[in-house]
Amino acid sequence: MADDNLGSVDTESTSMNSEGRKKLHGWLNKRMKICMTDGRTLIGTFLCTDKDRNVILGSCEEYVNPPDSEEKEDPRVLGLAMVPGPHIVSINVDLYTPSQAVV
């Protein structure tokens, strides 16, 4: 006995999933600033994420004070870093790429 529902796909969740995937795909290899619950700010290149909202940043630098604060500090270079999803407060993505510059 065949189950007719096995081949059906929920088109609404699939379209939402595709839109989210497209947005994440557009962020790949873009610079990203992540503010964390403990006040630290991480800036690095977005490499991937997972179902638990963890984010992997490459060429990552850590700032204890916000990078735009009056007190300037040298960043601590982390390199490759995993940011736990539950500790992320905000994410800013730099969508500008030098190849889009008008000469």
Nearest-angstrom radius of gyration?
18 Å
> Helix count?
1
Shape: globular
Distance between the termini: 65 Å
Along the chain, the helix and strand elements come as HEEEEE
CATH class of the domain at 28-96: Mainly Beta
Helix content: 10-25%
The average pLDDT is 83
Q: Unreliable stretches, pLDDT < 50, 5 or more residues?
A: 1-11
Please indicate the percent range of residues in DSSP E strands (runs of 2 or more): 35-45%
Strand ordering within the main sheet: 4-3-2-1-5
Identify the CATH architecture of the domain at 28-96. Roll
Provide a descriptive summary of the structure in words.
The chain has a domain at 28-96: SH3 type barrels, CATH 2.30.30.100. The chain is built from one helix and five strands, in the order H-E-E-E-E-E. The protein has one helix spanning 11-27; strands at 31-36, 41-49, 55-63, 76-83, 88-94. The termini are far apart. It has a five-stranded antiparallel β-sheet with strand order 4-3-2-1-5, with no helix packed on it. The protein is α+β, with helices and mostly antiparallel strands and 103 residues long. The longest helix is centred in the first third of the chain and has 17 residues, at 11-27.
